[in-house]
Hints:
five-stranded parallel beta sheet, alpha/beta, 10 helices, Rossmann fold, 2 domains, binds glyoxylic acid, 32% helix
Amino acid sequence: MSILFHCPWHNNKEWLEVIKKQFKNKKIYILKDKPDLSKIECAIIWNISNHTLSKMSNVKILFSLGAGVDHITELKSYRGQPIIRLKDPFMAERMANHVLSQILFYQLNLKSFQEAQLINKWMNKYDEPALNNNMIIGILGVGYLGSFVGKQLQRYGYNIIGFKNSKPNVKYSFPVFYKKISLKKFLRQCDVLICILPSTSETHHMIDGNFLQEMKKKALLINVGRGSTLYEKSLMTHLKKYKQFYASLDVFEKEPLPKSSPLWKFSNVTVTPHIGSLTVVDTAVKYMFKKYQKYKKNGKIKNDVNLLKGY
Ligand code: GLV
């Protein structure tokens, strides 16, 4: 039995090297090697095709190369095999850094100074930036990454509130709303809303025109979860109407964001290419190897994904 590695990222050679080193005595295949897929026991993957997964009839463990698992669960041939997702403190740190950078860019009006610099203009008229303790930051989706981000932002003195779709069963360092009827109450308070939701049928286009209407007209929306959560058409209508509304988008309905997308041209939008929480190769491979050893020892491993919830 052997291992399949599939990764479409630019650094896939580095990944393969580190995996081969860590999984020393194992045969590691990539699709180009044309392995017998029915003999694959374990797959380390990102964006594998439905066809390939369907051929892996004996696969026992699927490692996601990221925190998200929708690239596997949304495949028709996924039959509930255990998925191990990455839970890496370095990825969480990267996410927190990214989010903080977007908050500060907005809060300190840095865009206006960048624009002024382009025309050699010393700006002597500007809005005074809000103080951290006067801002409420909402986190939509308080899982591993969301709760870490909230905790970090609290250290800077921001007021944090969270929202999740079921009753919290862990303790958070900030208040968490969870009832559907309290979503509006949550949204109305946010000066900044950070969306770190997974892609499920429930979150699909959750952020639509009605949702946006509940938010303050001057606010920042950061989407670092999944593009499917945000209905881009409604967002664009909202951004045209409310010029003080700003969106920082790292994920999109279609990725890469098509060159023809009007989103590129909005002055109240920042586009980043899905880099919010890049996977750290070394720690990720160590994490996967540890899980692999556990699976080998026990002969089975628990699925990180709740199949009913879909994440
Ligand atoms: C990135 O989107 C990830 O799921 O890690």
